[in-house]
Design brief:
There is one protein chain. It is built from 17 helices and 18 strands. It has about 475 residues and is α/β, with parallel strands linked by helices. The strands form 3 sheets. A 9-stranded mixed beta sheet has the order 3-4-5-2-1-6-7-11-12, with helices on both faces. The chain has a 6-stranded parallel beta sheet with strand order 15-14-13-16-17-18, with helices on both faces. A 3-stranded antiparallel beta sheet has the order 8-10-9. β16 (about 375-380), α13 and β17 form a beta-alpha-beta unit. Bound molecules: alpha-D-glucopyranose.
C-alpha cells in the first residue's frame, strides 16, 4: 500500500468552512480501493466535533517560532466511524479556538501568519521525527503551501527532503501572502540562496511557493486549470512556466454522505427510485414552510453571498424575471456579504409570494432544498469545481450554471445533449435567460422529467477521480 498524508486546514466532519473540507473528508475513503492508504492531519481547532472527539496523544514536539517557544501535541482519532487514520495538531494559544479562520469580529485572525507557519512546521517535524512513515505528502491550498519548500530546503527536515509532495489548488484566488519581515524569521533555517522559491512580487507567497516546489500540482477541474493558466494576474507567467506538472482532476461526491435514500437530514427519503413522490413531498414541505406556491417551478440557490458566487447578481436577475411576468419561486440559503444579504432580503420583502430566504449556514435546510427544488442556480463568476451542482443532481434538481471551471465540466447544456442549463456569462441578462429557459423547460413536463431522470442517473462518485490521483502518486514513486 502506498501511504499518503493529506495535510489540510479543513476536513469534514471535524472542521469545514467550504468545499475543500468536503473533499479532504471524502477522497481518503476512496483511495484504499486503489491500494493507497490515506491519512489526514489538520489543526486541532475547538469545533464542537473536535471537542467531543475521542483522541489519543501520539507525539509531543516543540519549536522556536521567532522569539516564541511553542509546544505542540499530535493526537490520533480513536473511533472507527472515520474510515482513515485522522490526526490533529494541538497548538495552544494558536488553534484552540472555535472558528477555523474567523475571529469574533467576523474578520480573519490577526495572528494568521504565525498560526499558519507554526502548523506547517509542526507537521513537517512530526513526519520527520516520529515513527509514522509516509510515501507521499499531499497538501491542500495555500495554508499548506510552504510545506514542499520546508521539507526540501530546511535543514531540520533534511532526512525527508526527497519525499514527493503533491499540491491541490481548490481556490487559486487566495494566495497566503506574508511580509518577509514578519514571516521570514519564523521559518526554520535554510540556505538563503533558495529564498527566491518563497518569493513572488517581494512577498512570501505560499501558493506560488507550492507551485514552484511541489512535484505535481492539480486543480479540481480541467477547465479551471486552463482558466488559471490563461489568466491569474501576476501568477500567470508562473503557471505557464510549470505547465507540464499541472493537472485537472474533477472532484467527486461522497455517495455515502449524499444519498437521498438514506439521508437522515430529510423527513422524506427516496423509496424504490420513486423520484416523483420524493420530489413532490419534499417540495410540499419546503413550500408550506416558506409560503411558496408548489405548482410553480422552484429554483434554489445555496452558497456564500460572495462575488465569486455571483450572489450579487441574483437580486437583479430575479427582479427582472418576476417583473416581466415569469411564474416561478425561489428559495435562497446562505450567509456572507452584508450588502448582498440586505439586497436579497429586500427582494423577498417585495415579492413575498415568490421569494424565500434563510440567512444561515444550515446543513439540514440545504439538503431539503436540494431535494425540493426543480432547479439549482449557480451564477458563479469562477468556480474551481463546485460541489453544489453535483449534490443537486444527486437529489434530482437540474443545475443552471455559468460556463466556468468545474461547472462547465460537469454540466454540459441540454441543447448539446447535456444535463443542465448553461448561462454563458455571470451577467444579469444571461441569468435572466437561464431562468426563463428553466421555466419553459418545466412547463414541458415530459421533457423536464426526462432530463431529471438523466440527471439522477449520472455518476459523480469519487471512484473515477480517486483513480486519477492514484495514477499520479504512482508516477512519483516510479521516478
Ligand atoms: C473551493 C472552490 C470550489 C471547490 C471546492 C472543493 O471551495 O471554490 O469550487 O469545489 O474548493 O475543491
Amino acid at each position: 500500500m502506498i501511504k499518503v498524508l493529506h495535510i489540510s486546514s479543513e476536513c469534514y466532519p471535524a472542521a469545514k468552512a467550504g468545499g475543500m473540507g468536503d473533499v479532504v473528508g471524502a477522497l481518503p475513503k476512496y483511495l484504499p480501493a486503489h491500494n493507497v492508504e490515506a491519512s489526514v492531519i489538520i489543526p486541532m481547532y475547538r469545533t464542537k466535533w473536535i471537542v467531543n472527539a475521542d483522541l489519543r496523544r501520539i507525539y509531543i514536539g516543540d519549536m522556536k517560532l521567532g522569539t516564541e517557544d511553542i509546544d505542540f501535541t499530535i493526537y490520533e482519532y480513536k473511533n472507527r466511524d472515520i474510515k482513515y487514520p485522522f490526526y490533529f495538531v494541538d497548538i495552544p494559544g494558536k488553534f484552540d479556538r472555535a472558528d477555523i479562520y474567523l475571529d469574533t469580529d467576523g474578520h480573519g485572525y490577526k495572528d494568521e501568519p504565525e498560526r499558519n507557519v507554526c502548523f506547517q512546521r509542526a507537521v513537517c517535524q512530526w513526519v520527520t521525527y516520529s515513527n509514522h512513515h509516509f510515501d507521499i505528502l499531499h497538501c491542500h491550498d495555500h495554508m499548506t503551501g510552504l510545506i514542499p519548500f520546508m521539507i526540501q530546503r530546511c535543514f531540520e527536515f533534511e532526512s525527508i527532503s526527497t519525499l514527493p509532495c503533491f499540491f491541490t489548488i481548490h481556490n487559486g484566488q487566495y494566495r497566503g501572502l506574508f511580509e518577509w519581515d514578519r514571516v521570514g524569521p519564523l521559518l526554520p533555517e535554510y540556505n538563503t540562496e533558495h529564498s527566491g522559491l518563497l518569493d513572488w512580487d517581494n512577498k512570501i507567497n505560499s501558493l506560488a511557493t507550492a507551485i514552484k516546489c511541489a512535484w505535481a500540482v492539480n486543480t479540481v477541474s480541467p477547465t479551471y486549470m486552463e482558466e488559471i493558466v490563461r489568466d491569474s494576474d501576476t501568477l500567470t507567467p508562473l503557471y505557464n512556466s510549470v505547465r507540464e506538472k499541472l493537472h485537472g482532476i474533477i472532484n467527486g461526491v461522497d455517495n455515502d454522505q449524499w444519498n437521498p435514500a438514506y439521508d437522515n437530514f430529510l423527513n422524506t427519503n427516496l423509496v424504490k427510485e420513486d423520484w416523483v413522490s420524493f420530489k413532490r413531498d419534499n417540495k410540499e414541505e419546503l413550500c408550506e414552510k416558506y409560503g411558496l406556491k408548489k405548482e410553480l417551478p422552484l429554483i434554489g440557490f445555496i452558497g456564500r453571498f460572495a462575488h465569486q458566487k455571483g450572489a450579487d447578481l441574483l437580486k437583479y436577475a430575479i427582479e427582472q424575471c418576476l417583473n416581466s411576468g415569469l411564474q416561478f419561486s425561489t428559495m435562497i440559503l446562505g450567509t456572507g456579504d452584508k450588502e448582498i444579504e440586505s439586497d436579497l432580503i429586500q427582494l423577498r420583502d417585495t415579492y413575498t409570494e415568490n421569494v424565500a430566504i434563510e440567512v444561515d449556514y444550515n446543513e439540514k435546510l440545504a439538503r431539503l432544498i436540494y431535494a425540493a427544488t426543480d432547479f439549482l442556480i449557480m451564477p458563479s463568476r469562477f468556480e474551481p469545481c463546485g460541489l453544489n451542482q453535483l449534490f443537486a443532481m444527486r437529489y434530482g434538481s437540474v443545475p443552471v450554471v455559468t460556463a466556468v471551471g468545474g461547472l462547465c465540466d460537469t454540466v454540459p447544456d441540454v441543447r448539446s445533449d447535456g444535463n443542465g442549463i448553461l448561462i454563458p456569462y455571470a451577467r444579469v441578462d444571461d441569468i435572466v435567460t437561464g431562468i426563463s429557459r428553466s421555466v419553459d423547460l418545466y412547463k414541458d413536463t415530459k421533457r423536464y422529467i426526462k432530463l431529471r431522470d438523466k440527471v439522477t442517473a449520472m455518476d459523480f462518485s469519487w471512484n473515477n477521480s480517486a483513480k486519477q490521483y492514484v495514477e499520479l502518486y504512482q508516477k512519483f514513486l516510479n521516478q
